[in-house]
Amino acid sequence: MNDNIVAISTAMGVGAISIIRLSGKDVISIVNQIFKGKDLEKVNSHTINYGYIVNNDEIIDEVLVTIMKKPKTYTMEDIVEINCHGGIATTNKIMELILTKNVRLAYPGEFTKRAFLNGRIDLTKAEAVMDLINSDTESSRQVAISSLQGNTFNLINNFRNKLKDLISSIEVNIDYPEYYDIEVMTLEKIKKQVTKMKEDLSNIIKESQNTKLLKYGIDTLIIGKPNVGKSSILNKLLQEEKAIVTDIEGTTRDIVEGNIIINNVAFNIIDTAGIRKTEDKIEKIGVEKSISLIDQADLVIVVLDGSKDLSNEDLEILNQTKDKPTIVVINKNDLDQKLDKTKLSNYTLIETNTFDECGINPLKEKMIELFQLDKIESKDYQYLTNTRQISLAKKAYQKLENVSEAISNNMFIDLLEIDLKECFDILGEIIGNTYTDEIIDHLFENFCVGK
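Above: the chain sequence. Below: its structure as tokens.
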């Protein structure tokens, strides 16, 4: 943390401008050594200064240099940003020159990591920075912005404050039993508060699962027997010929993936190999892979051929998806229908075909309805946004469950405090109040270099 770092913060390639960012205690004086223009050590903070980057008498490029002095910077250290002309040769030449000084190349996400370690942002805001960069839909952008504004931090911090108040009340009762002017914490009073906390945390976890879908997209699996029209449906949804379509059974032997955006939410669609019993080794692997993907899907689209009777294989496929949000598509409704829909009364049914211009629209409409995408504007984004945060919240909830069980068994109050404190610490991991170096290093290693 005491050294100086540098990275290119813009994408490499031909462009109008490249930005080279430096952070550290010596970066202003270092850049001043290679800058021809004003004395950068004497200019005001948060100013842009025109001049040249030079190597002795050689002019490397005409630049604008932004000086930002600590602590009011992204990293809370001195920061210098060099705006040079875009292009690989010019940018690399300036970088090579800087790296001959007392500066090293930044690790991925190291600028944001320093912002976290120096106390400028909490861990949820740090994660939101990268989420905002990776946002490819309006809903994922709104989720990232909400977290970046501190809504996720406030949600968890407020919960921890209530937990801290309860722990403090228990400790006072344990340490100062002789005082008569303090509230006596009985098991019944603790039970009431813990029950309310469990309800609140359960709601946070539930709503966070929805927020996670908005952020990462809805993993959608298209599954069914061979030749029911799975690949044709994929192609219609994507509006491109992504999957090969033939009359030959078993054409799709591996998964085919694509993405569409409906009502500003991404659907990550996977077309699978047709499920049937087969002796073909390659096709068999594809079938096994198709079945294994069911557990990972947020939505399963089971495709049936409406022009044929419902088979035992169809029923077996439906049985394997019974615990998942499922849309049953009776495809080929442009042909004479033989499928008995009365056997599917417990399922969400729609009819489609891939020949009419609007034949696939009922499926899109049902996808919107199932996830209430038509109400997306009114959704609350101030929840947990990723698997790390949600898994920690679930661990914290389990600690509250332990407290409830202990109360039911009339355990001593001081024993309840152990699980309550562990719950408090686990929630602290979400916002970064408690952490290990290993977790922090892992979290930032997937960031962009230069951010």
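Confidence is low (pLDDT under 50) at residues 242-254.
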